[in-house]
Design goal:
It is a single chain. The protein is α+β, with helices and mostly antiparallel strands and about 130 residues long. The protein has three helices and five strands. Strands 1, 2, 3, 4 and 5 form a five-stranded antiparallel β-sheet that branches. A hairpin with a 4-residue loop joins strand 2 and strand 3.
């Protein structure tokens, strides 16, 4: 009987490591589900589209999205597109993360195809359930 009481004791205590501490005025970073649609147009050739695709693949890898999104090159019209597909991705700290992702994507596209136009849209499927 003593052994059972000892086995339960740790479960009743909340360990300090399990507690979430938040500084006053600071909001904990939460995960949100988002859909991503990024399209690059005004490309001059399929070679330029391939350069953009390669540059964006590196950005996706750096931001942990490789394997979670579709990255495709199109012939007519010549363009590159990144989409999440049917399922959204879960992102922690979306505000700061999305700013960094957009900055890196713009820089990658501009480096590969200076005259290209990039359009990026975020969808919030959790908001759409209302």
């Amino acid at each position: 009987m003593k052994d059972r009481a000892r086995a339960r004791a740790p479960a009743r205590r909340v360990r300090e490591a399990d507690q979430v501490s938040v500084s006053p005025g600071r909001v904990p970073r939460m995960s949100v589900n988002v859909h991503l649609t990024l399209r690059v147009d005004n490309l001059e050739s399929l070679t330029e589209a391939e350069l953009v695709k390669t540059a964006l693949a590196e950005v996706l890898r750096a931001h942990g999205l490789d394997g979670q999104v579709n990255l495709r090159k199109f012939r007519e019209p010549i363009s590159v597109k990144v989409t999440t597909g049917k399922w959204p991705v879960s992102v922690r700290g979306f505000g700061a993360w999305s700013d960094a992702f957009e900055k890196d994507a713009k820089a990658a596209v501009a480096g590969a195809a200076p005259a290209a136009a990039m359009d990026l849209e975020w969808g919030h499927p959790d908001d759409d359930r209302s």
